[in-house]
Description:
Elements lengths: L29 H14 L1 H13 L1 H4 L2 H9 L24
Helix pairs in contact: 1-2
Amino acid sequence: MTLLEPQAPDSLAAWGYFNAHFEHKEYVEPYVTEIFAGQMLQQDPTLADEFQRRLSQHPEFAADPEARREFFQRRDSSWDSRFAMYPILRINQTLRN
């Protein structure tokens, strides 16, 4: 069981066996994000307000182009919500035959 425990010092994760699982395999190029971000802002006034609020309230966000791109990428249907999820499931019950 120690091999599957992600925080164990001798786990498969610590040895790097899952490294490829935690890498982005697909992504959206920045110029493409800029196109669909503009469309999203035009189509969704609530999103536009949220984006403007984050820009004004968080200077680190306003200064970080990658964070701004990710803001829109996370809201697009192409975003992988399971990215960086540990690929082993733990259950809290005993399985019996």
